[in-house]
Amino acid sequence: MEYVALQLFNGLANGSFYALLSLGLAVIFGVLRVVNFAHGAFYMLGAFGAYLLLQDFGVGFWPALAIAPLAIGLAAMGLERLLIRRLYGLDPLYNFLLTFGLTLIIQDGMRLRFGLQGQPYPAPAELGGSLSLGPVGYPVYRLFVIVFSLAVCVLVWYLIERTRVGMVVRASTERPELTRALGINVDRWVTPVFGFGVALAALGGVLAAPMRNVSPLMGSELIIFTFAVVVIGGMGSIVGAVVAGFLVGILASLAAVFDPALENVLAFALMAVVLLVRPAGLFGSVDRT
Amino acid sequence: MTLLPYAGGTLVALVLPRLLYPVLALDILLWGLFAVSVDLLLGFGGLLSFGHAAFWGFGGYAGAITAKALGVPFPVAAVVGAVSAAALAVPFGFLAIRRRGIYFAMVTLAFAQMLFYLANEWRALTGGENGVQGVPRVLPGLSVGRSIDFYYAALPLVIVGFALAIRIVHSPFGHVLVAIRDNEARAQALGYHTWRYKLLAFALSGGLAGLAGALFALGHGFASLDLLHWTTSGTAVLMTILGGIGTLWGSLVGAAVVLLVRDTLTNVPEASGVVTGAIFVVIVLAFRRGLWPTLADLIRLARSRSLGS
């Protein structure tokens, strides 16, 4: 029983990362119609950002939580201006392939520099130790990750559904031409939205650094899980991305109670079921592509 | 005149192991067939499978395990690999073709990754991270121990696979496939059950990838998790696009170029990833036509010049 409770919390913690990553993917896809394969690589860069800030500049976890996503988001905006922008008129598959190529460059570039060995990163002292939750004790840091990620997800939801900026972004997602006709400069939002989505991935990376070893390959498998999450939730749906993220995290961890081998496979099995029953995804509406 | 590329292709295939070392020549041949299977779907069905490593790897494991357990001649093991991969492609394809475009790519990628984890967990059968090692390659009446002998023994199977792909493309089935690629709604309105065509194309393509993967595992004497890795799927797609989508021949050229570039970088495996990624970025941004159509244009240009002078 204690193990089940523990796995439930582990599932929530894993789900936090799925949710943050698929949320960023969904925001980017909504406005740019780009499926960003490099999302996992940016997550990894976020973790390395935190690691290098600490190693080379002695900058701790809390400043890194702001600096790394900001810097990586800005770099991604440059990348969007320089490369991704050139392929907007074409089949979205080309940008998928472009970002796949970028993933290989970033990931193996980091391998050349840092090797495959994972680097440890200490959790901030304020969040050390563990908290007793009913039958089990659970690391405070992981609880922080769950709460923090949920807060970020709610904040992003609020930003997009309830603010004026969000309204413009949603309008340019659904009817770009009509939005332009109403005198709104849609193109102005494209680059910042890409940067914002990538910053969410980098934020996930910083959060992951104290939990998982910081290594160049840490994002490569996560991105494929995130794709499964996105297919389950329904691409482009903010709520779908978050709900499916936590759902997959929890179910996979609970499945591991029965057989550890199931943990990695469950997300994909779930995806197969969703494709059979509801091909557009749990929260997806019309198939846009 | 139309037979010229076939004669030329066969000639190149025959002399290739004399020009390069035999293992590299075999790799070019088999990766080429793998890329052709990707092109069959992408170029003629408009379906980008980003999970073809599933079939290449499944064929590889099936072929290797069959050869090791039963000691059958290698062509039999290769056919077992091809048939197993085609059989696996039926359920994967059935689910994947429910989505289109970019979703199709994501779904196929996800299923291939599922197979990767299953192969990693099912150690009794696959050997987990060690893979299936010490796979024998036998052919009664012939010695295929040396790489160069295996190359020539495997060549007929590869040619059959490639000929099959060409035959499929030029068949009525292939034409319907192209019609679906260009306008699925119209093909449906004409009375075609488009999903059946897509599913059959997916299974045939999976079978070809499986044949190539099985021969690859048999040729190298082992099957490992690398066969199923997501970068393997990406590499096959890269070869297809570099060669030119929808040309079949281009996939062979693309495979040769990618492997030759990688061969010069064997000392630094990480650099090979960076270079592969860089090729990807460059061709997607600036060279989407691919090598084969460009080459064909150059030949045409040269010929018209020589006629003019």
What this model shows, in words?
The complex is a heterodimer of chains A (about 290) and B (about 300). Chain A has about 290 residues and is mainly alpha-helical. In chain A, strands 1-2 form a two-stranded antiparallel ribbon. The termini of chain A are far apart. Chain A has eleven helices and two strands; from the N terminus they run ααααββααααααα. In chain A, about 70% of the residues lie in helices and about 5% in strands. By secondary structure, chain B is mainly alpha-helical. Helix content of chain B is about 75%, strand content about 0%. Chain B is built from 14 helices and no strands. The two termini of chain B are about 20 Å apart. The interface of A and B includes residues 269 and 272 of A.
Mean pLDDT of chain B: 91
Poorly predicted parts of chain B? none
Mean of residue pLDDT values of chain A: 89
Helix content of chain B: over 70%
Oligomeric state = heterodimer
How large, in whole angstroms, is the Cα Rg of chain A? 19 Å
- Continuous helix count of chain A: 11
Radius of gyration of chain B: 19 Å
Number of helices of chain B: 14
Distance between the termini of chain A: 45 Å
Q: What would you call the structural class of chain B? A: mainly alpha
Low-pLDDT stretches of chain A: none
Biggest sheet layout of chain A: 2 strands, antiparallel
Largest sheet of chain B: none
SSE order of chain B, one letter for each helix or strand: HHHHHHHHHHHHHH
User: What fraction strand of chain A?
Assistant: under 5%
Structural class of chain A: mainly alpha
Give the beta-strand count of chain B.
0
Percent strand of chain B equals under 5%
How do the strands and helices of this protein lay out in sequence?
The complex is a heterodimer of chains A (289) and B (309).
Chain A: H1 2-32, H2 39-57, H3 61-82, H4 92-114, E1 130-133, E2 136-139, H5 140-162, H6 164-174, H7 176-181, H8 187-208, H9 220-233, H10 238-258, H11 262-277
Helix pairs in contact in A: 1-5, 1-8, 1-9, 1-10, 2-3, 2-8, 2-9, 3-8, 5-6, 9-10, 9-11, 10-11
Chain B: H1 4-19, H2 22-45, H3 53-70, H4 74-96, H5 101-121, H6 123-126, H7 147-170, H8 172-182, H9 184-189, H10 194-220, H11 230-243, H12 249-263, H13 269-286, H14 291-308
